[in-house]
Structures are given as structure tokens and as C-alpha cells.
Amino acid sequence: MEYDGGVNVWAATTEDLMSVFQDEEYKRVVIPDEESFLKRSEAVMMIGYDEDKWVDGKVYASEK
After folding, report:
1. pLDDT tens digit string along 6-15?
2. Which of 25, 9, 28, 27 is nearest to 17 (CA)?
3. Could you please report the per-residue DSSP string of 22-33?
């Protein structure tokens, strides 16, 4: 796949993240703006998560 841009969005839960896309203000403001600079039908959503790492009893927290 070829990309020329990306965005990071942080949320406490996947449900919180997905609720953003159902928000009426998002639909009213963000979607029309996105349509002016990207092909929404070709956009790809990738979801991941951070996990703290423990080594010898010390935590190395993910940067947030």
C-alpha cells in the first residue's frame, strides 16, 4: 500500500475511539473538510495499542 499521510488518534478504549466517528459534530465539520483533501473511500483505518513493558521489576511505560 502507498501512503502520503497519516493521523494518530488516542483514546482510552476502542469504543471511545469509534464513538468519535458517530458524533454529529464530527460528521458536520470533519467529514466535509476531509473530503476536500482525501479520498475517504480509499482511506484505511489501522488500530493498535500501547503496552507497558516490565524489565527486572521496572516498568518502561509507552509514550502517550
Report:
1. 888 889 899 9
2. 9
3. T-HHIIIIIHHH
